[in-house]
Amino acid sequence: MTAKQPAKPCCRHTFPALVFVACILAAACRSNAGSWIGDAGHFFVHTPDIFMNNPSGIAFTVTVHRHVWPADWANKGEYQLKVFAPDGAEAASGSIPISNENCRIEVPAGRPGVWRLGIKPGGYGLTWVECSLPQMVIANGDWDQKDGPFRTCILHVMAPRRWYFFVPAGVKSFRVKHIIQPFQSHREDYGFFIMSPRGQRVAALYGGKPLDVETRSPNTPVPVETRIEVDEGAGGRFWSIWATGGDSHNFSDLQILLDGVPPFMAPSPEQWFDPASGRPPDIVVYDNSAVRLRDTKNEKGEPVSRDHYLWTPVPFLGDEDYNGWRGPQTIYWSNPSNLPVELGVVTYIADDSARFPVKYSVFSPAGRLIAAREDVYGHHLSSRLQIPASGPGVYRAQIEAGRWFSWMEPAPPVVIAGKPADGGGARFEIETGIARHWFFKVPAGAGSFRMAVSVADPDHVLHVEIHAPDRLMDAADVRGGAKREMDIAVPKELAGRIWFFRVEIGSATRFVSGSFQPRHVNVEADMTLYGVPGFLAPTWEQWFDPTVR
Fold it and tell me: ∠41-498-257 over CA atoms, to 5°?
């Protein structure tokens, strides 16, 4: 961080290494850190564990920021800071006095592994942390609070932010809990959404301590708990918590506890790792989850899927709920293990008797045509194409159809390519019937990019949001007939990461579209990206750039 005055001397030698700690006044903006937990508008409080991944044992820096709560009772002493090596030995330490300052700790090279930052705050301090290492997480803490509430993850939400956690493959459900702390009153409300990998809001925890409890038994903790079921295709992926705080009290503390999944969170998937293993998560390359109902078998006795969904599809390029594409498109998928896959094209909603033409051309990693077909598809009538294994690498399919979405079994990393647009853009011809995130990459070094949105029907409104990994960057309600452009300045520390845009029905929309009956939810839009690679994926895990070999 850039100092606004010479650093104050507060060096502390810690055996066995000589560590120099510089404490300087906190500036308003965050530095170009490798990783961070919180920021100057989204703090954590008390003493949660912060873990940093250092698999090479290199020297690194940790900067702890303190924002003083403006009340005398809250500021009773210095922050005491300690950095612990993987073997538990104290490797560095520092302190922050009672003021809006920070402490930069320079940690020399040491043992490879997971390092821990311990913070002992004086009074009630609001904290955020930066680290030069690329991976750092905050521990949610013990579900039963065996070490007390102060060792758990308690956020102080001034500005909304997104936190990611990982749901391993095979997990069928997990729990999320918030406990209203004893000192919180009825008006000190909490608020956050739990969101699936595709952007579905699967649960919302909003509210405050019941007024009856507050009047009858003040200073009583009140747990608020929910169990989240994991749909087929939603495991082995990152989920997120969109922490907004409540609408009553801007200074409420927001505790988040996790059970049934690794209890650690980070502001981006790229930053997340599991301190128990010292590794990033195991991402499923080929997802063979039964997203489509499998209740029949082929002549070999193998299960065969059919056009029936018991849950919202996560890893497909669209879904029948409805998100899809208009006209001819090109998709790419990564097939490093050289597996055969099945590709399907289907639509929703259309009359069950309606049939629509589709034409495929599929090319191997070597560019050879390996499958071609002309067929028909409809509602609950997929056109299916078996694609043979033709070598490891990136496959390409050109699909010519009207209104459609595609599925693949197993579901690999897959992207849809935007069509060339004027000015070097990539245009995506989408249809939206329900909220969904579409993921794209903002390259390292990118200072800005742009997205243009055009909606076809003047009676329709599409709500569009552009999100960096942890924050909303811009939002617009785009009415048909009026093109909208959104220019996004990219903070340095958020470049080189996967972002997403969110689309959903605007509140002023007329659902019935006269261009294609009977489709009661059918917002047609062109989304054109400039300054970023022109590929969209249905989840963070599935994005890749097919032009990079």
Answer: 50
pLDDT, tens digit, 9 for 90 and up, residues 243-285: 999 888 878 889 999 999 999 999 999 999 999 999 999 999 9
Sequential DSSP letters for 457-525? -TT-EEEEEEE-SSSEEEEEEEETT--EEEEEE--GGGTTEEEEEEEEE-TT-----TTSTT-SS-EEE
Burial 54-68 (b: 16+ CB within 10 A, else e): beeeeebbbbbbbbb
Cα atoms in the 13 Å half-sphere on the side-chain side of 202: 23
Q: Which two tokens stand for residue 346?
A: 């289907």
Between CA 215 and CA 208 the distance in angstroms is 13
Give the tens place of pLDDT for each residue, 508-539.
766 555 555 545 677 999 999 999 999 999 99
1-139 and 292-415, same CATH topology? yes
Coil, helix or strand at residue 64: strand
Name which CATH class applies to 292-415: mainly beta
- Extents of the domains making up the chain: 1-139, 146-281, 292-415, 419-533
**Domain spanning 419-533: which CATH class is it, in words?**
mainly beta
| Percent of the chain whose predicted confidence (pLDDT) is above 70 | 92
C-alpha to C-alpha distance for 312 and 292, rounded to whole angstroms:
10
Architecture per CATH, domain 146-281, reads as: Sandwich (2.60)
Mean pLDDT of 429-444: 96
Q: Of 403, 427, 168, 452, which Cα lies nearest the Cα of 282?
A: 168
Please give the single-letter amino acid code of residue 59.
A
Which of 340, 337, 373, 380 is closest to 357 using CA atoms?
373
CATH of domain 1-139: 2.60.120.380
**pTM summary value:** 0.93
Find where tokens 């590794």 sit: 279
Dihedral through CA 503, CA 507, CA 513, CA 517, nearest 10?
80
